[in-house]
Amino acid sequence: MGQKTLVFLLLVFMPILAMATTYNPDFLGLMSLKDDWKNTPPSWTALDPCSEWEGIECTGSRVTSIKLSSMGLEGTMSGEIQTLSELQMLDLSYNKDLTGELPPSIGNLKKLTNLILVGCSFSGTIPDTIGSLEQLVFLSLNSNKFSGRIPPSIGNLSKLYWLDMADNNLEGPIPVSNGSTSGLDMLLHTKHFHFGKNKLSGEIPEKLFSSSMKLIHVLFESNELTGKIPSTLGLVQTLEVVRFDRNNLVGKVPSNLNNLTSVNELYLSNNKLSGPLPSMTGMNSLAYLDMSNNSFDVSKIPTWFSTLTSLTTLMMESTGLGGELPVDLFSLPSLQTVVLKNNQVNGTLDIGTTYSNHLQLIDLQYNSITEYKKGLYNDTLILANNPVCLETDTGTESYCKVSTDSQSDGTSTYTTLPNNCVPSTCSPNQISSPNCRCAYPYTGILEFRAPSFSDLGNKSIYKELENKLLTSFQSHQLLVDSVALSNPKKGSIYLDLNLEVFPYSRNRFNRTEISEIGFLLSNQTFKPPKSFGPFVFHGDEYENYQVISTEPKKSKSSIGIIIGAAAGGSVLVLLLLLAGVYAFRQKRRAERSSEISNPFVHWDSNKISGDAPQLKGARWFSYEELARYTNNFSAANEIGSGGYGKVYRGNLPTGELIAIKKAEKESKQGGLEFKTEIELLSRVHHKNLVSLVGFCFERGEQLLIYEYVPNGTLKDSLSGKSGIRLDWMRRLKVSLGTAKGLAYLHELANPPIIHRDIKSTNVLLDDHLNAKVADFGLSKLIGEDDKDHITTQVKGTMGYLDPEYYMSQQLTEKSDVYSFGVLMLELITARRPIEKGKYIVREVQKTLVKNQDLYNLQGLLDPSIGLATKLRGFEKYVDLALRCVEEAGSDRPTMSEVVKEIENIMELAGLNPNAESASTSASYEDVSKPTSYPYPPNKETFDYSGAFPPSKIEPQ
Ligand SMILES: *[C@@H]1O[C@H](CO)[C@@H](O)[C@H](O)[C@H]1NC(C)=O
Ligand SMILES: *[C@@H]1O[C@H](CO)[C@@H](O)[C@H](O)[C@H]1NC(C)=O
Ligand SMILES: *[C@@H]1O[C@H](CO)[C@@H](O)[C@H](O)[C@H]1NC(C)=O
Ligand SMILES: *[C@@H]1O[C@H](CO)[C@@H](O)[C@H](O)[C@H]1NC(C)=O
User: Fold this and answer.
1) Is residue 636, in this structure, part of any structural domain at all?
2) For residues 617-656, b (16+ Cβ closer than 10 Å) or e, as one string?
3) What atom of ligand 2 comes closest to residue 322's alpha carbon?
4) What residues contact residue 357 under an 8 Å CB cut-off, 6+ apart?
5) From 512, 517, 545, 550, mutation site for ligand 4 pocket: most ligand atoms within 8 A of C-beta
6) For residue 478, which atom of ligand 4 is closest to its CA?
7) Is residue 16 part of a domain?
8) Ligand 3: which residue has its CA nearest to atom 4?
9) What CATH number does residue 655 fall under?
10) Average pLDDT in the 844-871 region?
11) Does 702 share its domain with 745?
12) Contact partners, residue 27, CB within 8 Å, separation at least 6
């Protein structure tokens, strides 16, 4: 991070955590979302959600947008989302493992304009509070598992433009307003009613439609609606797509339907409609008319059929249609498909000579046609089961066979072809793009709910769609190379097309790009060519992200400063030379690695790392040796992991156990830093600090060997995972041990060390429940020139982090004191510092009443602390913890003061603070059996992250 960036970051982010002892409420809200979700982006471990978390956008320090489509998120939606009160955009589409109900508190997001949850698995009823989102413009809850009724309160969303609830299990009537209750009829600005594929029942209220509405798409297909089509439908002059097919509608089709002169697609099929067909004269935009499977009373083919000048598709199977087909019907210029199966069409079929040159299917099976006047028309015609095909001279004609032509079964074989290039042979899972580059495409299905065409074999429509998609991606600054479509398929209701989107100039997208592409499609920012009609995209999860180390830049401040200060080419040349020599030697060394036995020779040969490390007590291990002790670093020996790499348990030949931390490639430091680190660690010896046993620096591997602490982390004990019950006395003892370890680091180590990441996963417990502080990975020497130095990167863990340090970037011992204060509160409550959006420090401060028993904190305490017995010294302990988390570092005690105070409390509580393991072990009889329970209980929280540079900040 350059100085400029740093200054910039300082200016921009200082206000974020500006409230000392309270974190930004938005961050707490995000933390609760994160808590409830699996598979959040790896960047969600960074300290500053606004600048570093993928999918999050902020204005100032407030979160305004969350876009996480196709992320593979798993879990439920926390009610704490309500804390994000400035949120405008929420898109969680295409995360099919997001489940559970929508929390009613979502109604508190008063600024929300877009709520998009397409293709998740949310269930339960849609909360009525959704009607409080008064700024909402775009509401897409389609393709989930919502049940129950449509909340009438949706009628209050006066700004709503898009309402999509299709493809759920919604039931009950369509709500309309009635005196005091709201209803969908009030949505005068809404253009889209998408309610298909639900279980809505009851009659469609007359009141639903009015001439004041601006609806263009009304989709109620595939429900259980009964009654008549309301005549008020004819008042909505703006309508373009109307689908009421696949319901149980009865009665006459309203005669004013032909007032809807903008309608392109009209689907009334699969109902129980009856009576005469209304005249559709004047519906000059009508392209797709499907009235199949009703019982109309039409003994004569209506003459207005031939006046529908835009018609591409006429579907009237099984409708009772009778009479002779007029020859001019086939002259409609755009006509592609005429399906009049199973009717009483009679007389002669004459297609004429001026028939539409788009005509590709005429299906007249099961009619009463007696003669076919053969002309030039040579595309698909089906007359099977008509009298004309029963005659011996014509019965063998091809039109008398039931075609198995692809056109009539609703599929086509379109696939985007290469753009004048030869497809590449790609490694597994990669696909050759239309521009013949191998990449991992983002995929999904585009579903068109009412296309105006029926000829699926027309390649030019797909080309047009491809071009529009590509242009749309590019005009939104998305680096897309090309898009490919394939496998168009007309199922019973919709037209589906496979979509592949290829990245430009790289072989994969990153998470930000995926969520933006997903958003472009989920938010309907992309408009397909008009003939495709309304669409919905069903995105797949994208799994091909680069496996990036969560590791930010290494803290190579010293090297950075040298380079910066010298800024001369000569230094660079020198460094390059050294690097070359280093590489050469590395190679040679690898060739003779078997000979190597002396680490210090090894170290000598490495110019960059300088002289062999000056160690106190720690020893060198060979890689082979360590491999042997850990059964070749087998998974069974793995006892923990973190951003830096993994921790293994090793068995020394003496039977002694060790913990070996093995850095992953990304976490490795330069030889010099590694050396500094082990020199430092080897000097630190205290019974409350996990001590370094040795190291290994060989074959490009960096390993640190620690003493093995058998009872796992404090967090495991607090969470109940380890099976150790911590009563009040034990908790005091643990806090004392931790405080002593820290006091040693601050005041006795030479040079002094600031830990920088005190938390319950970094405190380990031994057989006698002595606390041992681990993880000096973030440790900072308080060196000569370091004292006033701005550290280049704030490190720590959200929840434990000292807000003053975050703001000032000025690191002092008092930051550890703050974290220790948080840890003290964690010790009595067994709650994580930030849990369900609540910050422990604030919760304690809020609840605390000085003159009451236990300061009124009973409700917050961990029950296993033993509330039945008197917690002697409890109030003094809380006083101390709260002094540690004072806003100003200068108001906090030093660690040695903390030690003294805890000792006082313990004496008050009747415990001898200086009692050593022998006596304590007697009183902790159930603990001194390390072998009696498997170690460690929980891999994830076990964190020995020691001397490797830290991975990014881990929020808890
Ligand atoms: C048809 O629309 C016109 C306005 O374009 C309106 O005056 C007329 O009343 C409507 N007819 C019916 C039957 O709704
Ligand atoms: C066709 O059917 C109609 C009744 O649906 C009848 O009036 C007409 O005469 C029939 N025409 C022929 C040629 O059979
Ligand atoms: C159908 O007829 C057109 C001319 O009207 C001709 O170009 C085309 O090749 C014919 N197709 C077949 C399959 O015979
Ligand atoms: C993702 O890719 C875009 C380019 O499309 C780039 O600008 C952005 O920085 C990348 N984000 C991350 C986190 O790498």
Assistant:
1) yes
2) ebebbbbeebbebbeebeeebbbbbbbbbbbbbbeeeeee
3) 5
4) none
5) 512
6) 5
7) no
8) 376
9) 3.30.200.20
10) 89
11) no
12) 16, 17, 49, 798
Flag whether pLDDT at 643 surpasses 50: yes
- Report how far residue 239's alpha carbon sits from residue 209's, in angstroms, rounded to the nearest whole number: 11
The pLDDT assigned to 411 comes to 65
Q: Tell me how far apart the alpha carbons of residues 571 and 575 are, in angstroms, rounded to a whole number.
A: 6
**3-state class (DSSP) for residue 224:** strand
Q: Is 256 in the pocket of ligand 1 (CB under 6 A)?
A: yes
Residues in the chain: 956
C-alpha distance from residue 305 to each of 252, 313, 375 (Å): 19, 11, 22
Same domain flag for 693 and 738: no
What does the alpha-carbon distance between residue 218 and residue 345 come to, in Å, rounded to a whole number? 32
CA atoms within 13 A on the CB side of 442: 34
Q: Is the CB of 234 under 6 A from ligand 1?
A: yes
pLDDT-derived band at 805, boundaries 50, 70, 90: confident
Residue 481 is a catalytic residue: no
How far is it, in rounded angstroms, from Cα 516 to Cα 94? 13
Pocket of ligand 2, candidates 300, 324, 371, 373: which has the most ligand atoms within 8 Å of its Cβ, to mutate?
324
The pLDDT of 870-890, averaged and rounded, is: 92
What CA–CA distance (Å, rounded) separates 705 from 687?
A: 17
End-to-end CA distance of the chain: 24
> Is the CB of 510 inside a 6 Å radius of any atom of ligand 4?
yes
Looking at every residue in the chain, the average pLDDT score rounds to: 83
Q: What atom of ligand 3 comes closest to residue 378's alpha carbon? A: 1
> For 783-900, where are the E strands, in sequence order?
834-835, 838-839
Q: Considering the entire predicted model, what is its pTM? A: 0.76
Between 682 and 878, the higher pLDDT residue: 878
Mean pLDDT for 6-31 is 54
Chosen domain end from 659, 676, 707: 707
Cα of 277 vs centre of ligand 1, distance in Å, is 19
Residue 175 lies in a domain: no
Query: In a mutational test of the pocket of ligand 1, which residue from 252, 259, 261, 284 has the highest number of ligand atoms less than 8 Å from its CB?
Result: 259
pLDDT value at residue 16: 40
Domain presence at residue 591: no
Q: Does residue 939 have a known ligand-binding role? A: no
836 and 923 assigned to the same domain: yes
Which of 539, 566, 583 represents a domain boundary (last residue)? 539
- Tokens representing 356 are 């539409």
Residue among 35, 290, 481, 757 flagged as catalytic: 757
Task: Answer yes or no: is the C-beta of 512 below 6 A from any ligand 4 atom.
Answer: yes
Q: CA 701, 707, 708: angle at the middle one, nearest 5?
A: 100
Same domain, yes or no, for 451 and 498? yes
Q: What are phi and psi of 943, to 5 degrees?
A: -140, 95
259 within ligand 1 shell (Cβ under 6 A): yes
666: pLDDT confidence band, cut at 50, 70 and 90?
A: low
- In order of 191, 300, 462, 521, the CA distances from 525 in angstroms are 15, 45, 19, 6
How many structural domains compose the chain?
3
Protein residue closest via CA to atom 3 of ligand 3:
378
User: Does 520 lie in the same domain as 469?
Assistant: yes
- Residue 845, domain extent: 714-952
